[in-house]
Design goal:
The protein has 5 helices and 7 strands; from the N terminus they run αααβββαββββα. With about 160 residues, it is an alpha+beta fold. It is globular and about 60 Å long. The N and C termini lie far apart (about 50 Å).
Length: about 160
């Protein structure tokens, strides 16, 4: 049986169209609509669909697309003040590709949150090894630096 969701409810349940709700049950959708944290989060800044910021309430949201987390996680909300550390992590390997030595690499942003139980989240930008000199690698490296800059700005604003 096919169910329809109005555009206003879809926007709220999908965090301003950043998540798909296709796999959620009716009960899950209704629970999320009734939960105040969804309505209260207003996006003031974002870096692509990877990380969202609410400067008014000093919160950030990790939408947790499976493509970028390598895990199946629900969206997570953290206060700016809970950000302990954020850094770009690059792993590099030298390999021979078509008889030519190349440097291949992956890129992720690691964000650590303080609290009773410290949490570390990875935002994968390049999960599989690609040529470090490629335009895709350079673009994702720049994007990773933008994410770190935005998170550091938020952390400093909360201090």
């Amino acid at each position: 049986m096919r169910r329809c969701v109005c555009k206003v409810c879809y926007e709220k349940d999908s965090l301003n169209f950043t998540q798909t709700i296709k796999t959620n049950t009716k009960e899950e959708l209704l629970a999320r609509l009734e939960n105040g944290s969804i309505d209260s989060f207003e996006i003031s800044r974002k870096v692509n669909q990877l990380i969202l910021f609410d400067d008014k309430q000093q919160q950030l949201c990790l939408p947790n697309h499976k493509k970028y987390t390598k895990e199946n996680l629900k969206p997570e909300f953290y206060a700016f003040s809970s950000i302990a550390d954020c850094q770009v992590v690059e792993e590099q390997v030298e390999k021979f590709v078509k008889k030519k030595k190349q440097t291949l690499g992956t890129i992720k942003v690691v964000v650590e949150f303080a609290g009773e139980q410290p949490v570390t989240r990875d935002i994968w930008l390049i999960p599989n090894l690609i040529d470090k000199n490629s335009m895709a690698y350079k673009t994702m490296r720049s994007l990773a630096e933008s994410i770190v800059k935005e998170i550091d700005q938020s952390r400093n604003a909360a201090a």
